[in-house]
Amino acid sequence: MEIIPGLPNEIGRECLIRVPYDRFATLISVSRTWKQEVKSAEFFQRRKTSGLNQSMIAILQTDPTNFITTTNNPHITTPKYRLCLYEPGKNERITLPAIPGCDDGVPLFCQCAGVGRNLVVIGGWDTKSWQVLNSVYIYNLVTGTWRRGADLPGDTRSFFACASDSKTVYIAGGHDQEKNALKSALAYDVSGNVWAPLPDMARHRDECKGLFYGGKFHVIGGYQTEMQGDFEKSAETFDVETGTWNPVEEDVLGTDAYPKTCLFDNKGNLYKCCASYLGRLYGSTWQRFAEFPVDVCTGTFIATWGETIVVIGSKIYGGSLNCYALVFGEHKEKCGWTKLEMPKEFIGSVQFGCNLQL
To answer: Which PANTHER family does the entry link to (predicted)?
Structure first.
């Protein structure tokens, strides 16, 4: 059957791969043939080969216009969370539908990871009771629908490291219901909907940062139970090929030990946000790499975006958000910032984010 009547199938495929990602759900509803095409791995490979794939950032963001009252104390309110898709430089933001059964959008303090055409949301707290959840929900970016995944096994955990490759989500550390730091780790096969235990880390790590690069799951910083907020500067790395943790790397974070703004670029360079600048790790030494524009120095969030890095933040707490892309010079060392357009409704601090290629 012809993809588009009257045209050779190769021409029909060239037409389909040019449709923006937010119209995929419409495409698959047109015909069985289009549904098969759009859901195929070849469709996304063609988009990538032709330079038509879209580099998106899935952002977990507070909504300062909506607040939740807890069931335990009506005097305590917290802002709702929402999941959005943002393609830097475009004057639009797509807010994803609420998770089924979660009228307030998404759980507080949940973690999310991008795996292929799926966005995986793990754990968090119930928005009203603050009960810790083991739930897993998967948003299919092609069909625009949620489905329930296999629950996070074992005891409940919060504030764990989370990162993914093209197939698997890895988590490690965090703390249990009694606020004891954890060193256990797990891997979630999204297509198989199966959790598997990983070997324990060498150290307990609460509020650690998870990154995935070069076939390895990097767990950075965190603190042990008795330290309670006194962050370590060390890191541990799980090698997916060997199934083992490498020895602990001491003093990775240098003088600023808060790990949440750490990031690998697509060359494997490690960066972190400091008070007014972006730092980069050279060997074992952190150096100032690029001064931040003054209007992103509060609530700063960084993410990779294609070949570069973007930063989102505001000038003052609660202020309007701004976005800049880091533009590298000829020798990849000298660089500057280019301001990108953002939609006016893009308000609320960014709590977490991950990358998607569509």
So the answer is: OS02G0208700 PROTEIN
Q: Which amino acid is at 300?
A: T
CA-closest candidate to residue 266, choices 314, 211, 221:
211
The DSSP annotation for 271-315 comes to EEE-SSEEEEEETTEEEEEEEPPGGG-EEEEEEEETTEEEEEEES
Q: Of 82, 17, 87, which Cα lies nearest the Cα of 56?
A: 87
Judge if pTM exceeds 0.85.
yes
The per-residue DSSP string of 198-229 comes to: EPPPSS--BS-EEEEETTEEEEE--B-TTTTT
pLDDT digits (tens, 9 = 90+) for 257-302: 789 999 999 899 999 999 899 999 999 899 999 999 999 999 899 9
Identify the H or E element spanning 28: helix 24-28
Tokens in use for 254? 């240098």
Nearest to 306 by CA among 326, 291, 279, 290: 326
Neighbour tally for 58: CB within 10 Å = 23
Per DSSP, the three-state class of 8 is coil
